[in-house]
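Job type: complex structure
Entries:
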Amino acid sequence: MERRLQVLVVDDEPIVGKRLKSMLAKLGCDIEVFVDPKEACSRVDEREFDVVVTDILMAKLDGIQVLEHVLKRVPEAKVIMITGYAMMEMARQAMEKGAFDFIAKPFKPDDLRASVARAAAALGIQVESKTGESQG
Amino acid sequence: MASLVFLNDSFSGGEEIATKLSQALGYRCLGQEVLGFVAEEYDVLEPRLLEAVEAPPSLFGMSSRTRSRCLIFLRARIAAFLREDNALYHGPAGPFLIDRISHITRVRVTANLDDRIARVAEQQRTTARRGRRILLRGDKKRQKWSRLVVKAEITDPSLYDLVVNLSEAPLDDALRSLSEAAVDKKFQTTTYSLKCVENFELTARAHAALADLDIDAQVKADDGVVSVRTKPSHHSKERHLELVREKVEALQGVEEVCVELAESLMGGIAETMR
């Protein structure tokens, strides 16, 4: 049986986390959502996630710190950064630190799903497409 | 992979390294021949384009309107070329005409003065003394152009992500470091940077489409939505807005057009005084 993609979502705005969860549910993955980035990092210490989708500008820890923490724990994890304040230098910084992708808000659900699907493919894990077919 | 935009100092060997690098990386490459493509696409004389990108403004030279028009068309062509990644542009004015986009690496290629002089003397079959005069005159012209036309200093390092001096490093070393830059993590394409380049290309293309209606139109594209602030010159306001909308709606990739009139300074003052 193909294993399901394990996804962690971190965004300090609860409604954003809920929206991201419902966007990604269509890919047939298992998703955990955190509004507290410190708690999210503690969760990463407990179990491995394949993909982490994290906001950048958060109060307790920023997304770059989450990125660094995740990759230290799970170097193969694919971390996708999302932000409402996208700038060229921020994108370069995130990619230099090992992010898999960088997406500016607002974004279309398909953009995030495509990015997660690419991350899954890079890990050799299949996800469902919109039509319910497997991708990856 | 990253795309690259080069600005080559004259007689620095930049064209040679650009060609070799694009071959090594398997990149599409575009240089000075861009002017021919622009001339054909936008029905502009190639010598005019060359003048627009080389000759500094002068009293009896090209009008600023004509120059703006040429640069708008050139920008649209460069943007179309960079729309897909894995591209290397080393034609005129690259870093000055493109937006800052995270996966487009800006490179300045230069060489020491003596080496450049030697290259001029060899290519133009002249003495080193005359070569020096030719080179320094050319450099002065370029600097004046960039200061007056695009309000930038060619030598300003903040314009570039990398500066390569081909006198300091052998060609193979320079090729190697540029190849490494092309695959450097920080310059990789992202969903965000691909959107930026799409928006930049559509903005440039829309601006080019409007160049003959309103050269000073402010155009911004975002995810297929093109916003235009424009001032009528030859038509009534209503007719002008209609024409602008028609021109932009006809472009591929446009989903929605928002057009508004730009307030003129005199119009604003007149309104205040009523």
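Summary: The longest strand of chain B covers residues 104-110. The beta strands of chain B are 3-8, 28-30, 87-89, 104-110, 162-165, 218-222, 225-230, 256-261.
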